[in-house]
Amino acid sequence: MDSVKSPATRTPLIAGNWKMNLDHLQSIAFVQKLAWSLKDASHDFADVEVAIFPPFTDLRSVQTLVSADKLELAYGGQDLSAADSGAYTGEISGQFLSKLDCVYVIIGHSERRTMHNETDEVVAAKVAAALKHGLVPVICVGETAEDLERFGPSAVPVSQLKAALAGVPSDANIVVAYEPVWAIGSGQAATPDQAEAVCAALRTVIAESLSDDTAAATRILYGGSVKSGNIAGFMREPNVDGALVGGASLDIDEFSAIVRYKKHVGV
Ligand code: 13P
User: Fold this and answer.
1) Is 179 a catalytic residue?
2) Is pTM beyond 0.85 here?
3) Ligand 1 mean position to 180 CA, how many Å?
4) Nearest atom within ligand 1 for CA of residue 110
5) Distance from the CA of 109 to the center of ligand 1, in angstroms?
6) β-pair type (136-141, 242-245)
7) Which residues are registered as beta bridge partners of 140?
8) Is 245 helix (H, G, I), strand (E, B) or coil?
9) Known active-site residue 109
């Protein structure tokens, strides 16, 4: 299991989940400015990968810009349908996201689990749909403050991840995001120790559910009140391979400072 703990082969991923913010015109201006900011700073995308998750209605504009300017920015949807096509009013197929050159898709964000009643079964079906359409699912798990009190820190995220991985091929290309619900948008991030403990437990789930090699290769992100001032602490942890950033991903200076965490804190 030693290889499972080695972060050496995993490229860190800093991902911005825009949630329901920025229309397609705003997304164009934002992505241009973000690209300039990272270019000015000579950011090496092979060293730290950057992905953004705009609303569906922005994706075509983002695709056009990324392809015209040959930006090394990855992007994806914030959700997808478990179904391929048909009478599902308001749903978006993974096939549509693939056609827009999305690399990733967020699945099972706590806001979808709570506001849209997404169960573990729905999340597992969406993970299967993402893989079927060649997308890398960013599988979100995390406990509420009440769960933390009742069951301790890792029980709920571990059980959510086990359910999400049921039926996933052992060599699947996935990303996992540990987002404690109590830390999302609260300004009260987990400590690096707390994040590390749960991310290590999640890596063990991947090893047991899929394989040791997949566990060693899979990026596990921390999310919940990540800022430029606390990112370095998370990134020093061996089982934390990046961040899923909400509010701070909407501020270009802040987000690019998070992406450049190695530079400004000398990690
Ligand atoms: P905040 O960074 O705003 O806490 O949101 C985290 C999140 O939910 C990312 O998916």
Assistant:
1) yes
2) yes
3) 10
4) 8
5) 10
6) unpaired
7) 177
8) strand
9) yes
CATH for 13-264 is 3.20.20.70
pLDDT at res. 3: 40
Q: In angstroms, rounded to a whole number, what is the distance separating the alpha carbons of residues 166 and 233?
A: 32
Residue pair 53/76 in contact (Cβ under 8 Å)? The answer is yes
Q: Is the CB of 12 under 6 A from ligand 1?
A: no
pLDDT digits (tens, 9 = 90+) for 141-192: 999 999 999 999 999 999 999 999 999 999 999 999 999 999 999 999 999 9
Mean pLDDT of 204-227: 98
Single out the residue of 193, 101, 184 nearest to residue 141, CA to CA: 184
**Residues facing residue 106 across a β-bridge:** 138
- Helical (H) or strand (E) element with 24: helix 24-40
Which amino acid, one-letter code, is at 59? L
Q: What does the alpha-carbon distance between residue 192 and residue 53 come to, in Å, rounded to a whole number? A: 24
pLDDT tens, position by position, 113-142: 999 999 999 999 999 999 999 999 999 999
Give me the residue spans of the domains in the chain: 13-264
What's phi and psi for 77, nearest 5 deg? -85, 165
Dist CA 118 CA 92 (whole Å): 15
- Point out the catalytic residue in the list 49, 109, 111, 237: 109
- Evaluate: CB of 15 within 6 angstroms of ligand 1: no
Atom of ligand 1 nearest to the CA of 249: 2
pLDDT at site 184: 97
**Tokens at 207, concatenated:** 């090893």
Q: Which residues contact 228 (CB under 8 A, 6 or more apart)?
A: 248, 254, 257, 258, 261, 264
| Ligand 1 centroid distance, CA of 67 (Å) | 27
